[in-house]
Request: fold
Amino acid sequence: MVRGKTVIERIEDTTSRQVTFSKRKGGLFKKARELGVLCDAQVGILLFSNTGRLYEYSNSTSGVNSIIERYQKVKEGQQFMSASAEAKFWQAEAERLRQQLQNLHEEHRQLLGQNLPGLGLEGLKGLENQLETSIHNIRLTKDKLIIDKIEELNKKESLVYQENIELHKKLNIIRRENMDLQNKLNRQVEVNGIITSSTSQYNIAARIDPVHLELSHPDHAERNEQPQSPTLWYGKDYVFDNLL
Reply:
């Protein structure tokens, strides 16, 4: 019969919990004893139950106390060794960084043309190659920046050109509108001039040209005489009445 997998959680039943504690404690001490025998190891176990009772096991003849004392000594020694090792590590790291900084200063001076005699022929050739490579990379970067700047200026020029075209179109439209307005104004002025001229001529003619009026008298008709036509003169500022 296959046993089911035991769920690792707190056992709520007090009796079952106490039974399990006793079984597991015995198994733990058995495994510790076997480990000490098989591997010639010094094993010590301290175990407290939920009621506060102490259980201990040690394969040492001196008991658990000797194992605890040994543990304390080893722990203190490890702490001391750890601090000492950490100090040595940082000292070595500081020395490495100091040497690296010195090398960088030396290389910088050599790139400036200083302290060259100590390099030798191979060192000088290597420095020359390094400088040529640096100059080549600098020129490539400079050329790329110039090309990018030219492309940017070309784009701006194209935008300005398009804006100028649009402005010229708007200016031509405004000019045509102004010409149309000027033509309309000129035509209106001509029409107004013609109307004003016609009105002036009519007023002058009405003032200067005389008006002839003829009247007939009944007494001349009775005498069978031909009467002379009376004339009423109307001029600019006067009227003549000539009746016969």
About this structure: Residues 29 and 47 are 10 Å apart (CA to CA). Confidence is low (pLDDT under 50) at residues 229-244.
